[in-house]
Amino acid sequence: MGAFPEHCADGVALAAVADAFDTPCYVYSQTALRARYQAFERALEGVDARVCFAVKANPNIGVLGVLADLGSGFDIVSVGELERVITAGGAPEDIVFSGVGKRRDELERALDVGVGCFNIESESELERLNTLATRRSQSAPISIRVNPDVDARTHPFIATGLSENKFGVDVESAATLYQRAAGMDGIEIVGVDCHIGSQLTDLAPFSDAAERVVALIDRLAAEGIDIDHLDIGGGLGVDYQADNPPSIADYVAAVCQAVGDRDLRLIFEPGRVIAADAGVLLTRVDTLKPAVATDARSFAVVDAAINDLIRPALYDAAHAVERVGAAGDGAVTRIWDVVGPICETGDCLANERELTLAEGDLLVVYSAGAYGSAMASNYNTRPRAPEVMLADGDMIEVRAREAVADLMRGEKRLLPER
Ligand SMILES: *Cc1c(COP(=O)(O)O)cnc(C)c1O
Predict the structure, then answer these.
(1) Do residues 105 and 208 share a domain?
(2) For residue 418, what pLDDT is reported?
(3) Which of 73, 178, 336, 343 could form an SS bridge with 94, CB 3.0 to 4.6 Å?
């Protein structure tokens, strides 16, 4: 499927990756990753724009390095992500720093390295940054994150652009804040920012948001505040299963149309649309529990679980799943629930999929390159899966599988008092 035709990518078979690195295992295609980034560059040809990959979608240094090499900027939400970008070779001046609660030490470190823009989400944050920057005789470049109050029509957990959400400030407050910022010694106004949600499959909310933000930019200009860039955030959706998202080119065109002939630099913060389809999760069938009663469900228990990929449990996400290679002896065709071994009923990777399976068969879970390994945990003391980048016929382990000893590091056994 997609970037992994016939279960291969970059000249490597997924079955060979499973043999070499065992399962569960995340696999990325360098070719696919590059192609998604370059689709943005092509769509933006002739436009003054920058793509800042949203690190939270996939913070692996191997992944970030491929994008840094292509000239990508980065959208970060923590000092940890800042250190990752620097380690991966990203340029600090091409970083935008988002997030609704940036700590003082995080602001300080970002001032140390000189990030390109602080996306400010509250009056309090603006004051704090001004104080810190003034004390250091610096002028911190900022945009204010506007909450344009548009309905992104996505899963409520990943909708961020409604007035009821915690993110940004409303348009009126933003206008007031810009006036205050204009009088601050430690602040340099460079942009206006918004981000309305994730996994959007409709262009209308993007157009609505862009129009509202552009109207604010016009108003600020009339009040004597010039804005250099419009940061439209991320959020473009991908095709997990019949989601039918717009193309990158159509998305870029819709934003450009809202901007018209204004002299504005554009910043995009895509995460999912760049990384999701460039990655898969490999897992093996451990145990089959076919239904006994006619109305019962059949379970294929696999060696990956919601600690590896939480999206199905958290967002009701439907990732495509296929068997890789021939089915094993005695394979059974059924409607299977593909579940993990974790002690939670919600530990389900895919609901009701028709598959022909035997124990030991290899499965591929598609579109797992974004918010997959990034959201993995150690629940049930399960070591996190390795991550392998495929490139030019090679398998490069960009993150080793954790050992149980890694999981106990920093813990302490208390001896009983006698
Ligand atoms: C999560 C996030 C993004 C990326 O969203 P995608 O849906 O992965 O494109 C961009 N900007 C901000 C501020 C975010 O919080």
Answers:
(1) yes
(2) 65
(3) 73
- Residue 53 token pair: 């990959």
DSSP state of 403: P
pLDDT tens by residue, 288-306? 999 988 888 999 999 999 9
Looking at the fold, whether 238 and 288 belong to one and the same domain comes out as no
DSSP secondary structure letter of residue 208 = H
Q: Which domain holds residue 180?
A: 99-268
Residues 216-242 have pLDDT tens digits of 999 999 999 999 999 999 999 999 988
Q: Are residues 256 and 387 in the same domain?
A: no
pLDDT, residue 292, reads: 87
- Choice among 52, 117, 343, 348 that is catalytic: 343
Angle at which helices 123-135 and 171-182 pack, to 10 degrees?
20
348 has catalytic annotation: no
CA 363/CA 201 separation, integer angstroms: 27
Q: How many domains does the chain have?
A: 2
Give the nearest ligand 1 atom to 98 CA.
13
Atom of ligand 1 nearest to the CA of 271: 8
Q: Report the alpha-carbon distance of residue 300 to residue 284 in Å, rounded.
A: 10
